[in-house]
Amino acid sequence: xxxxxxxxxxxxxxxxxxxxxxxxxxxxxxxxxxxxxxxxxxxxxxxxxxxxxxxxxxxxxxxxxxxxxxxxxxxxxxxxxxxxxxxxxxxxxxxxxxxxxxxxxxxxxxxxxxxxxxxxxxxxxxxxxxxxxxxxxxxxxxxxxxxxxxxxxxxxxxxxxxxxxxxxxxxxxxxxxxxxxxxxxxxxxxxxxxxxxxxxxxxxxxxxxxxxxxxxxxxxxxxxxxxxxxxxxxxxxxxxxxxxxxxxxxxxxxxxxxxxxxxxxxxxxxxxxxxxxxxxxxxxxxxxxxxxxxxxxxxxxxxxxxxxxxxxxxxxxxxxxx
Length: 322
What we know:
Organism: Xenopus tropicalis
Strand order of the largest sheet: 1-2-3-5-4-11
Order of helices and strands: EEEHHEEEHEEEEHHHHHHHHE
Helix content: 25-40%
GO molecular function, one term: protein serine/threonine kinase activity
Distance between the termini: 7 Å
CATH architecture of the largest domain: Orthogonal Bundle
CATH superfamily of the largest domain: Transferase(Phosphotransferase) domain 1
Domain AGC-kinase C-terminal: 264-322
Low-confidence stretches: 93-102, 290-301
Strand content: 15-25%
Domain Protein kinase: 8-263
Number of domains: 2
Family: Belongs to the protein kinase superfamily.
């Protein structure tokens, strides 16, 4: 069924980027919570990023067809004269707001990420921007990987890329050094995410990018003695400088990570069926009640109109999974 913005009650802003914002929303027809990602057409054209937008849509459709419990699903895409919209099945809370909830929580969420990355890599997709901001918790308390704007599909085991992309604090050394990199960059980013969830700081940090990159290349992350040996070992194996020695870099991929002693008592089949008890369930009551205010100031700082010829560049963007 074709959608328009009038089909949704909008709530709080979940995230903001170069081209637009992501809003919590309620789909009026079903009263189901979801997210609406908005992109400004004029900025996409100015940045010559039209191919990237259609690539993200294609990857989201592929991910959705897998029906994986730890990857975001795409319900639909639609557009107005000045904006593109992704209607996504996600989640009200950012993982960043949950980091105070102890070891079971970070092990639970790490397992969700491992299963999500396993499915992406099985479908020959490398994420390339795994970070806290791209991890969200659904209404049932399970984590999902979101935002495939920098992902690359058709990327098989053994393939390499030299495209420099990602977020500096999460970049693997091989990306920083402009070397041809593999899917192992996603496992490095998982190591950074796990470190931050446990230590409440980045494993490599500095006052400027040059110092940061030197730290990523050369420094060993500091680990507290209060951490279990299993957690310390997993972090160090994921943050191995040499991608060939990094946990998950072999053809076994996620199976190698899942076999690590950190996950010793996890029943992966039970986890995949979402039969594990989540450590936290977000309170979603009232999250879209402020939608009138949100619509008034948040979504449409007026975007510049584009020409009818430019509108043709977005032909074929509209899509519905129904």
